[in-house]
Specification:
By secondary structure, the protein is an alpha/beta fold. It contains 14 helices and 14 strands. The strands form 4 sheets. A 7-stranded mixed beta sheet has the order 2-8-7-6-5-3-4, with helices on both faces. Strands 10-14-13 form a 3-stranded antiparallel beta sheet, with helices on one face. The chain binds pyridoxal-5'-phosphate. Pyridoxal-5'-phosphate (PLP) binds next to α5.
Length: 376
């Protein structure tokens, strides 16, 4: 017998079963990964030399200084010593919840969400209140309802912008109100920004959590907008020096330091961010156009709130076929994988649809043929 101190991560258990066994992952949340050779072709003279001369020893625990500097430059007001590098956003979430929360503390987490954002918080012994986002509200945060969820022990509020699984992005007034609400409550505001830079409205991009105030924390990663999930490089950025220090000390018990090759490849990509992000946007925008047409044709069978950012959305299958059965039949018949909302603990007939992969056109064709065959 083993003792799990944390609940199973339903989405990861689901992917453990299907991710590398199906033909089309129509529910992935990343963007099609870069081929190594193409990425290295973007290296400047300094990063090419760093790559060529790289020694595979331990790396600096806080992160490579050049990488921390490059990450800091993604923000308006963050200095390089306000960045802590992790092995993926997942490690950053794990460490942050563990250093901030414990029994007697309370956290509010926007939900449905990437499960670790609430499960790790709960595993610390803290009380967690889910702030439910609703399809009928366009998946928007309800600030008055969130205010009513505050307690005297609320230490952390967690939002995800752009949001997984819905693709929602708050309007600027709502975002500001959440930033202010956290400040008034004396709580840390964690903004999971792994899909930042994939907003549809680039000019109207919201301020990053770390830039929004001294209580703001941003989590970023190379996996999603930068299309480099295999590097497993993520980070925390914040002006809160105590929090960073505690996180650095906790990291001594998780990974100690990040992978040396991954740090240099991340540096290459961040220095070439314009080209890297342009590629991701090209893939996502072209796929979204196909999805717009699909949802128009299929208006009687599906409905969705068009994602304002990121490479995922959370459509609803209309009618009386349960989404679990539909998704199961689809994967068995066509090898096309959708992620039913129940994986997020969501009770509706929704499913996560991912549109960051280059096989989306083929996967969508298969889905549409399956719909015509089975739902008519
Ligand atoms: C909102 C959100 N945060 C964090 C992560 C974790 O990212 P990574 O697996 O690259 O560490 C994910 C991955 O799907 C995510 O969707």
């Amino acid at each position: 017998m083993t003792t799990m101190r944390i609940e199973d991560f339903e989405l990861e258990r689901f992917f453990a079963r299907y991710e590398f066994a199906v033909r089309h992952l129509l529910c992935a949340s990343d963007v099609e990964g870069w081929p190594m050779a193409d990425l290295l072709a973007l290296a400047d003279a300094e990063t090419a030399a760093l790559w060529h001369d790289l020694r595979l020893g331990y790396t600096e625990s806080l992160g490579h200084p050049l990488l921390r500097r490059e990450i800091a430059s993604l923000y308006e007001s963050v200095a390089e010593d306000e960045v802590l590098v992790f092995s993926g956003a997942e490690e950053a979430i794990f460490v942050l919840a563990n250093v901030l929360l414990g029994p007697g503390d309370h956290a509010i987490v926007a939900w449905p969400s990437y499960q670790s954002l609430h499960a790790v918080a709960r595993s610390t012994g803290a009380a967690v209140t889910l702030h439910e986002l609703r399809h009928g509200d366009g998946w928007a945060i309800d600030v008055d309802r969130m205010r009513a969820q505050l307690t005297p022990t609320t230490k952390l509020i967690v939002i995800n912008v752009p949001h997984n699984p819905t693709g929602a992005v708050p309007d600027p007034a709502t975002y500001r109100a959440v930033v202010d609400l956290a400040a008034e409550a004396g709580a840390t505001l964690l903004v999971d920004e792994v899909y930042r830079f994939l907003e549809r409205d680039l000019a109207g991009r919201l301020q990053a959590g770390a830039d929004a105030g001294p209580h703001g924390v941003s989590i970023g990663v190379m996996s999603k907008s930068f299309a480099l999930a295999g590097l497993r490089i993520g980070w925390l950025a914040t002006h809160d020096a105590h929090l960073l220090d505690a996180a650095a000390r906790f990291k001594d018990y998780t990974t100690i330091c990040a992978s040396a090759p991954a740090e240099i490849l991340s540096l290459v990509a961040l220095r070439a961010r314009d080209a890297v992000l342009a590629r991701s946007r090209r893939i996502v925008d072209a796929n979204l156009e196909l999805l717009d047409a699909f949802f128009e044709r299929q208006a009687g069978r599906f409905r969705w709130v068009r994602p304002a950012g990121g490479p995922v959305g959370f459509p609803e299958l209309l009618g009386d076929v349960p989404i679990e059965r539909f998704a199961q039949d689809l994967v068995e018949a066509e090898g096309v994988l959708l992620a039913p909302g129940s994986i997020f603990g969501h009770p509706g007939n929704h499913f996560r649809l991912g549109f960051g992969r280059t096989d989306l056109p083929a996967a969508l064709d298969e889905l549409e043929r399956f719909v015509a065959r089975t739902l008519d």
